């Protein structure tokens, strides 16, 4: 997944690849481009959040084990 994000970033960081410029060529392409940008943002957010979710899960399990011992 990281390789894909790196490849997508090369394209999405291009200043010529603005949704408004793509809309001028094709509205359908502009819509698809917005979808790609949204997926990229979601993937980056997920990449940051997933380790935190895993840590919360671990800590909850640890807390439950601790509570069960008492």
Describe what is shown at a glance:
With about 70 residues, this protein is mainly α. The chain has 3 helices and no strands.
Q: Could you describe the 3D structure shown?
A:
The chain has helices spanning 2-12, 19-25, 27-69. It is rod-shaped. The protein is an all-alpha fold and 70 residues long. Helix content is 87%, strand content 0%.
Q: Tell me about the largest β-sheet.
A: none
Radius of gyration, whole Å: 20 Å
Seen as an oligomer or otherwise, the chain set is single chain
Q: Helical residue percent?
A: over 70%
What structural class do you assign from the helix and strand content?
Answer: mainly alpha
The overall strand count is 0
Order of helices and strands: HHH
Count of helical stretches: 3
Low-confidence region ranges: none
Strand proportion: under 5%
Global mean pLDDT = 93
Shape: rod-shaped
Give the N-to-C terminal Cα separation: 43 Å
List keywords for this structure.
single chain, 70 residues, mainly alpha
What order do the helices and strands come in, and which of them pair?
Layout: H1 2-12, H2 19-25, H3 27-69
Helix pairs in contact: 1-3, 2-3
